[in-house]
Amino acid sequence: MATSGDNxxxxxxxxxxxxxxxTLALYLKTKNFHWHVAGPRFRDLHLLFDEQAxxxxxxxxxIAERVRKNxxxxxxxxxxxxxxxxIADQDDVTIAADAMLKELHDDNLKLHARxxxxxxxxxxxxxxxTSGIVDEWADQCEERIWFxxxxxx
Length: 153
Known about the structure:
Strand content: under 5%
Helix content: over 70%
Shape: elongated
Largest sheet: none
Number of helices: 5
Number of strands: 0
Order of helices and strands: HHHHH
């Protein structure tokens, strides 16, 4: 019979793997926009998207290692990321710069909500290390949201 501790841990692992999937998907989308942005703001947006992609990539390993430190398994493939993420693909390479900014803004909001779920479930599971580190990930996400919002004005 599962205990409430088991359920708390399962919820935490699910939230962490969800955040991992969203981070990987958002990384790839941000790089896609970095490669395909065009127009009068090309240089500024090209650099912004690259900075944000690097920041996202920098958190991937930390998220996955939190799963492993909890003696559980991470996502294993592009298929497992695709089935877990809330970030929709964007394959239109001609999407306008303003649409890119809006889409990345909205997707970062989705990731932020997922990170809040990680925070809540880590506290319920008594995982203080995850609870502490997720604050940094959320702060980085809030900064990306802020930059994307300001660049959209």
